[in-house]
Every structure is written in structure tokens, then in C-alpha cells.
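[Q] Does anyone have a clean C-alpha cell version of this?
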Amino acid sequence: MPSPAQFDMQFRFDDRDFSRRIDRAIAAGREQRPALEAIGELGLSSIHKNFVHQGRPRAWKPLSAATLYARIGGMGAFKASARRRREYSAAGLKKPAARRMAGMKILIGSGRLLRSIKWRIVSHLVEIGTNLVYSRILHKGGKAGRGHAVTIPPREYVMWQDEDVHEIRRILVEHFFGRGIFDLGGLRF
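[A] Here you go.
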């Protein structure tokens, strides 16, 4: 279960008229849980796309040479002839290591991080996050490792995209006011 102390996504509408209309619909007894569930699922889908595209809207920084080396299997990943010549390039990799390197994704080693991201409804909010201790440093970047000798670049994976903002509005409008095209605070849906 996500822990807001570990990580959370926050989103607020700046449109006060829109927010007041939603508040009135909730006060009139309209159930909000289905809309919040849809927003939670949208958040998970958006985060998944961030992993698939290796960063959105900007690409994440590539993996360091040390990370690549560790993930392909260290020295054992290289052919004996390459080790003798001390030529440690992609051409000297054994076939299984070359396949691992070709399919390697940033922030997806075992897939544990991506699988750990969940959403939950708390009161009238949706929280999206993970309880993994290392999730924050992978997202925000910083010093890590023994003696904080390693600098990890920020790779923001828990974030709303511009297209998500429009989709959240659509979910709220459809849920609270019904389907169809109509005018709501100057925005047409």
C-alpha cells in the first residue's frame, strides 16, 4: 500500500469555478468514489507510460557505465578473448549478456519498483505512491551508496502529464454532470 510519507502525486485545479461546481455536486449527494477510482487508474496508467517511454515529457538520463556493467553480469558477461585483450565493449559481450543489454530499461531492473506503485482513496483524495524505501531517490535524485559516493540523477516517474490534466477534467465532468458536449466554466467537453 502506498505511503504518503514515501511518495505521493499531488494535483490541484486552479479553476475555482470548476472546483465550486464539483463541490456543489458532492454536497448534493453525488458519490465521488467512482470518479476517484478512475483518476487513480489514470495515474497508474500515466506512470506506466513514463516507464515505457523512459521518461516523459523529457527522456531520463541514461544508466551509468557501472550500472550497465553490474546488470549485464560483470566480467563474466564478456567473452574470454575480449577479457584477454582487455576490450570491454558491446562487441565483446557473450550473447546472453548482449541480449540483456539490448533490452535494458532505466529504472526497470527486476520490475519491483513499477509493480509497487499503487493508488488508494483517502477521504476525498486519491493517493498514488509506493512504499519502497529507494523510490524517492530514484525519482528526485541525490547521493546514495556507501559513503554517499554515488550521484543518482533525477528520473521523475511519478508525475502528471499535461494530457492527464485534461483527462481528469473529463472524468470529473462526465461523472458529476453527465456525458455530452456542454459548456462548463468556459471549457467545452
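[Q] Thanks! Anything notable?
[A] The chain has two domains: 1-61+106-189, 63-104.
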